[in-house]
Amino acid sequence: MPRPAKKEYPLSMRLPSDDLSLIDRAASLRGRSRTDFVRDAAVKAAEEVVMDALPIRMSARGFGAFTETLAAPAKPVRELVALLKRRAPWDD
After folding, report:
1. Residue 3 in domain
2. Whole-prediction pTM
3. Which positions ≥6 away from 23 have C-beta within 8 Å?
């Protein structure tokens, strides 16, 4: 379980009661406090935004290999082919 973050800066928000009820329910299902749940969700969302904004850097040679791989014909993956041919349990 992640250790609690050092509390240095307060953050306050006003939420509609329906939002707060949903957050409390989700936090309870995870066995977390409201504060921990909201902090973790906010940090995860912030990390995703920052990672999406970072450029992907590679050498010209690496980019050439990457585009070559994308342009090549797809190869079947034996396990996926078998899985997709399998009858769904709800179809029985």
Report:
1. no
2. 0.59
3. 15, 34, 37, 38
- Residues 65-84 as b/e (b if ≥16 CB within 10 A, e otherwise) read eeeeeeeeeeeeeeeeeeee
Share above pLDDT 90 across residues of the chain, in percent, rounded to a whole number: 83
SS3 readout for 22-88: HHHHHHHHHCCCHHHHHHHHHHHHHHHHHHHHCCCCCCHHHHHHHHHHHHCCCCCCHHHHHHHHCCC
- Alpha-carbon torsion (35, 38, 44, 47), positive or negative: negative
Domain that holds residue 56: 17-91
Is 1 inside any structural domain? no
Residue 91 in tokens: 């179809």
